[in-house]
Amino acid sequence: MSDLASHDPKTATEIASHVEEPSQAELHIHRRNAFSALGWARDNLFSNIPNTILTVLSVTVLVWTVPPLLDWLLLKATFLGADPQACRDAGGACWSFIEVKHRFILFGLYPYDEHWRPLLAMGLFIAALAASCDPRLWNVKILYVWGLVLPVCGVLMWGGWLGLTFVPNDKWGGLPLTLILATLGIVLAFPLAVLLALGRRSDMPAIRAICIGYIETVRGVPLVSVLFMASIMFPLFLPEGLTIDKLLRAQLGIMLFTAAYLAEAVRGGLQALPKGQYEAADALGLGYWQKTRLIILPQALRLVIPPIVNQFISCFKDTSLVIIIGLYDLLTTAKTALADPLWRPFYIESYVFAAFIYFLFCYFMSRYSQYLERRLNAGTRR
């Protein structure tokens, strides 16, 4: 180019006139991005009259709600201090209520000086749950983990050993109680649900009738009725002098109720399998349980991961119904914390705090199910 410029100045000037300065190139990129953004907005937000109306309405609602919400949540909020009058004067959210009452909301009626015990037990419980979510530990190792964690959690919660003060389970409450009811309810309900689903598709009429009768009966009543029966009616049928702990009865009620719904989800997976899978398993000469364990169930459960996780989330939220039998779960302790007259006006903050904790656990379950679905379907994707 230097030779060309030295011998032909006109051609060099023409070439130089077509070379863009850096600032012009950046301007060109900005213009192109702007046109791309306008094109995306035109295609997705203003593509037709209904979409345009919905876009305008959505923007109006956001402009109307978001600034006052941020003002209440953050700008005018009170985060520290134990003076309710300061919250009233500020006019925003009173997060200092959570600061003052968080121990009661999280641990309920558990003795105040012993709160480190349910906190430690809850940490071990969540760590074991996290380990159970790792597919690399889906073997006998995870049984060792739970075999160690559950007794330690029991010792921490009940006490009576190693110099720990005994705390009866009617003093348990808050988040530990919610986690115990939900986790044990899900874990114990799952194998029962698989057996019920297999029994419902059994060729033996008696077993099929029993499973159908159980599933349809339990699914025909609300969980409140099941808990009421487990708490009030069931003890009436026990021999005189024999009693079963109220927490154990609630746990059994949740397990039996969840198993009926999970069984229908598993049955859907069994029905969705092609008939050729059953015939191929028969052709290998496998027995019923070998065929079910090695070929049928893995494929059926993979197909119904979303409804199974949906039922897990529902079970976790339904634990709030145990208040009808006098157990103080997380939502109940959040409501009970408002019994203090000084803090009673700040009920929204209490419910927002409880909802945030429920959201964290439910969001984790939802995201984990998506991860698990992608991982288990890795071999079938094209």
Protein model, in words:
Helices cover 73% and strands 1% of the residues. By secondary structure, it is mainly α. Helix 15 packs antiparallel against helix 17. The longest helix has 30 residues. The N terminus is likely disordered.
Short description:
It contains 17 helices and one strand. The chain is mainly alpha-helical and 382 residues long. Helix 10 packs across helix 12.
Please give the structural blueprint.
Blueprint: H1 2-7, H2 9-18, H3 22-44, H4 49-75, H5 84-90, H6 96-107, H7 116-132, H8 140-158, H9 174-200, H10 205-219, H11 223-233, H12 246-272, H13 275-283, H14 288-303, H15 305-318, E1 328-329, H16 330-336, H17 347-376
Shape: globular
Calculate Rg over CA atoms. 30 Å
| Main sheet record | none
Helix content: over 70%
Briefly note the structural class of the backbone. Answer: mainly alpha
Distance between the termini: 51 Å
Instruction: Count helical runs.
Output: 17
What is the number of strand segments?
1
**Mean pLDDT over the full residue set:** 84
Residue stretches low in confidence (pLDDT < 50, at least 5 long) are: 1-10
User: Could you tell me the strand content as a percent range?
Assistant: under 5%
Q: Sketch the topology as an H/E string, one letter per element.
A: HHHHHHHHHHHHHHHEHH
List keywords for this structure.
382 residues; mainly alpha; disordered N terminus; 17 helices; 73% helix
